[in-house]
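A reminder before we start the practical. When you read a complex entry, don't treat the lines as separate problems. The point of joint prediction is that each chain is placed relative to the others, so the output describes one connected object in space. Small molecules and nucleic acid strands, if listed, are placed in the same frame. In the example below there are two entries. Take a minute to note the order of the lines before looking further.
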Amino acid sequence: MVKEYIASNKDRFLSELFDWLRIPSVSADSRHKGDVRKAAEFLREKFSQAGVDKVEICETKGHPIVFAEKIVNPALPTVLVYGHYDVQPPDPLNLWTSPPFEPVIKDDKIYARGACDDKGQVYMHVKAFETMMKLNLLPCNVKFMVEGEEEVGSDNLGTFVKENKAKLKADIILISDTALISLEHPSITTGLRGLSYMEVEVTGPNRDLHSGVYGGAVANPVNVLCSMIDALHDENGRITIPGFYDKVAELTAAQRKALNDAPFDLEEYKHELGITEIKGEKGYTTLERTGVRPTLDVNGIWGGYTGEGAKTVLPSKAHAKISMRLVPNQVSTEITELFTKHFQSLAPKYVTVKVMAHHGGEPAVTSTDSPAYQAASRAFEDVFGKTPIPTRDGGSIPIVALFKKELGLDTVLLGFGFDTDAIHSPNEHYGVKNFVMGIETIVSFYKHFVKK
Amino acid sequence: MVKEYIASNKDRFLSELFDWLRIPSVSADSRHKGDVRKAAEFLREKFSQAGVDKVEICETKGHPIVFAEKIVNPALPTVLVYGHYDVQPPDPLNLWTSPPFEPVIKDDKIYARGACDDKGQVYMHVKAFETMMKLNLLPCNVKFMVEGEEEVGSDNLGTFVKENKAKLKADIILISDTALISLEHPSITTGLRGLSYMEVEVTGPNRDLHSGVYGGAVANPVNVLCSMIDALHDENGRITIPGFYDKVAELTAAQRKALNDAPFDLEEYKHELGITEIKGEKGYTTLERTGVRPTLDVNGIWGGYTGEGAKTVLPSKAHAKISMRLVPNQVSTEITELFTKHFQSLAPKYVTVKVMAHHGGEPAVTSTDSPAYQAASRAFEDVFGKTPIPTRDGGSIPIVALFKKELGLDTVLLGFGFDTDAIHSPNEHYGVKNFVMGIETIVSFYKHFVKK
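Here is the predicted structure of the whole assembly.
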């Protein structure tokens, strides 16, 4: 009956999602401020059409938060669904095979920025809610909080949560912003990495210089920045920041085994990425490197002449964006401070260095024996016919730690994407099957969660 | 009489030069192709007004070459003046205090892209020629060859020279594209560095990846490029490319002494550049590092997300423009090959590396006891009241070596800029005094050169 309703409304569900995907809600780019709000208003509209009691656009210092709720009976449990309607910048645009904000279906996948991260996954909840309302199956209360700043660090969400504890009162958090191993191997993410995102600026001479007249006699800030970045890892792929690993929780042998029992094909992994060799911290597997080990990556670098042709310039400045993924029990504010101190200490006296912090988030681990996790596990069994495998995800959803801290609530990460969905990349996509089975699984979750 | 003519026509000379500077003849940027030609046509016009026998715009595969000549008497010696009318790109635009192509005079300096390099210095020759014609003082034949591709490697000049040896027949080359120590310490450049300009591309995964999902498990091409660039210098500031120094001519103790006798104030140098420490190859002075030692500088680097805000991307590609300044007797084609081999050898197997050569040029040393150099020396004495100091310049004018090889001609580098004129930088400028005294010195050079 649920299956039937979803099947017969699938095309409408998709066309609604497409309308939402056409709104370029890029939170990082101030030129899209208006589009971000449009995306919020679109969502408000869909919530009210789906039958919530109330829905509101809550202003913040940045982009707004959409809050909606349906209270069936105050005595019943309450599920709080979190997601985000903002998306990553689409560049490099030239690598998209179809325009990022003109969604299309190719071999049963939706191609568009935000298709998977996170509009597509949020919209499964909107349509699961509609389904339960239409079929009179909603067994408990539900609240929705969908923000517009997840891709830029959820700067204003903390304040909102602190100031609205009563409004957000619930029994469990449900988030669909993670990935499955595959449709054959459903999985539930039980761990997330934290984040410290930094930007650095290295300044040499007070102006761009002629590299012939000055080259060899004056430190080149690009060369210096490269040396400083190189110094952030040692020959074993470990990060050299003093104290960086102090709080890292090492897994037990059993935990490591469980983690590595997840199906993983290294050859397939390399083939899909077009690489012949992987690289990472010595002594750990790929699943451990992405799941339970902290990392440091340069996300962007620029300096000097980057245009067409050749310019013999010795630049005045060089810049880089550098982010670190954190694991339990690292604390992002502490790591940000350790990075800043260390990077400054790496600066030779012939340059000056500025270090700025963009944003951070805390790592999180969720329990696998909570009733909510068990309900999610059964829901997967209903729809996928298999018990989901608990996995660790390399990404970050800082809200999970925030929820625990501020509301004392656990989270279930009911994600339906694939790691290969190219989120944050050109040609982001999301399987239509994932979308449909996701809706079914969410409906089934409510059933098991409330079942006495 | 010469002084008077120049003084009474100075304002016109400057306003003509300003008209030329307003044409953005940026040879590196294809969008300015038309402007480059406009600048050539402007020059043709000024040559014919100044009284040459003939002037022509010679087509090449790239930007055209302006050739002009005045044959007084085939029995007399011939001076061949070389220069270039193309300019460097003006970016970063936001650092200019006045628009690069709207010349203005501020505290007796002309501010504009090309004011010194090389339109301002070329125009001294045009006006020196006009002066000699008007005052009936031209003592010999003169030819002018002004190209439009010097800032992008003079790709088509070699062919032009090879194919026009008769047309270019002369006794000496005169080039004004270098700098003086100061008006109090006039100097003549007797050595120039060569150049190899490379571009490299490092590719990791076949697409930009989410740095959370893949970070720590897949090599980041930006981090890898930084390590490779860092590996190009050792702890003594020496370049690590095998064979790089094999052909470098070491100076004799006497030559080093002469070179270091040139007035140089390190504190003033650092102060003017806004740095507290210099950096360079161990065991050499600043004048040696810029004058007689080869160098390697990153001229530009880019990769990943460089826009506003934060994007947690593990980029697919990273790029850099890297140039090397060469000294006698290094050969740019050989160095280009050594760099390519070495850079490829530095590539770890988890990335692929592409190395492309932009352009190169050979180093050159000019004699100080030729009659032409002596004539130049006397000309400086006439106008500056001091014997010029022979110096080595860090820049490159590949044409000097080319002329020697193809036409068997020596060059006199009669340059009137300052190292601090910010050529290739924002706020390039050229002293009005330098411009005026330059014209006087050029006129005086002809007198001494032809004097029996």
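Discuss with your neighbour: The domain at 2-192+364-451 of chain A is CATH 3.40.630.10 (Aminopeptidase). What might explain this?
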